[in-house]
Design brief:
Layout: E1 15-18, H1 24-37, H2 39-42, E2 46-50, H3 60-69, E3 73-78, H4 83-91, E4 95-97, E5 114-116, E6 125-128, E7 133-135, E8 144-147, E9 151-157, E10 160-163, E11 172-177, E12 181-184, E13 187-190, E14 203-208, E15 211-216
Parallel strand pairs: 1-2, 2-3, 3-4, 5-7, 6-8, 7-9, 8-10, 9-11, 10-12
Antiparallel strand pairs: 11-14, 12-13, 14-15
Helix pairs in contact: 1-3
Length: 220
Amino acid sequence: MSQTPDLKGSSFPLTVLHMHEHSTESAICYLDGKVAKAPAFFKSAPLVINLSQASSDLDLTLLKQGIINVGMVPVGVTDCNDKQLEKRAREAGLAVMTGTNRPDKAPEPIMPSKIVRNPVRSGQQIYAKNCDLIILNHVSAGAEVIADGSIHIYGTLRGRALAGASGQAASIICHNMQAELVSIAGNYWLAEQIESHHWGEQVILSLTDQTLHCDLLNIK
């Protein structure tokens, strides 16, 4: 028996570009540099533009084309408080997305942690929706582990780890830090941004005032 298409709500981690009064040209240049540093992570990645602090004369058509030119995919805009700017976003073919931090929004239920016992191989992606993710093995280079909550890795992290994927505070605890990229709530470090004295060590990464912090665990 044939089935008709079905629409269902879902949740996916998205990269958000905060404009902060930046010019269109400087924003495109910034994105181009990020894609050049981590092409495997950012190439064809969906991007949402946060307009909460954007200039009212921002050229969204030019910005959209610039995002496409650097190899990312512009999805829409969020936190737009300017009706004219919102109108221009729609005219540019961008979705106008509502924020997820509304006070009347019911919180997502807390789910049991997702536990992965096998190594996470290059090319694999593991996503723990509405819960923490516990990896009892290694995460290879080219692999990606994502969680709406915190991430615990009891082996070597050589790939990418993205905690707090839905935007909330979280932590990444790793027993051997050799990551390609680490991210909490959209704030990320590439490998070269991880300090050398944390490399290969047991660490915990946390987020304070939208800034990543890394501390040694020193567990023997």
